Amino acid sequence: xxxxxxxxxxxxxxxxxxxxxxIGWQVAIGAALFLQLVCAGAAGTTQRSIRQIITEYRMxxxxxxxxxxxxxxxxxxxxxxxxxxGSWAGVRPALVVGACLLxxxxxxxxxxxxxxxxxxPDPPPEPDDxxxxxxxxxxxxxxxxPGPSPAAAPRQASLxxxxx
Length: 164
Prior knowledge:
Mean pLDDT: 82
Distance between the termini: 67 Å
């Protein structure tokens, strides 16, 4: 699914690169954009599903945060570089470079072990009732943080609406 969707994505740039004025080209560009968004949804959903299956339960939030940070952080940088290239070389050459760069994920995925993946992998073990998924004994809990000193108790009670 991912390889097919990522392979179609660069092809969706052809109407944009070949377009000339006219309603026919506007329709072709709109249809190509629709197909590009469908491909992005298919590849993205499959990629996130695989990533979630192979990531340990306790690392799910960290994995999602890193992924979001990388993809969100790359967008402004890409926009800046594309704008600079468009200003320097022209719009059409910038679009050609962008379409060619869409081939990079196809090549990376085609050369990766994911290319041979036919079924979803087995997920890591679920955490037990104490949140441990390694099967190892849990480490001793850290020392408790002491509460407020007795002198602070009347002040805290008055802040909470109690009497002192």
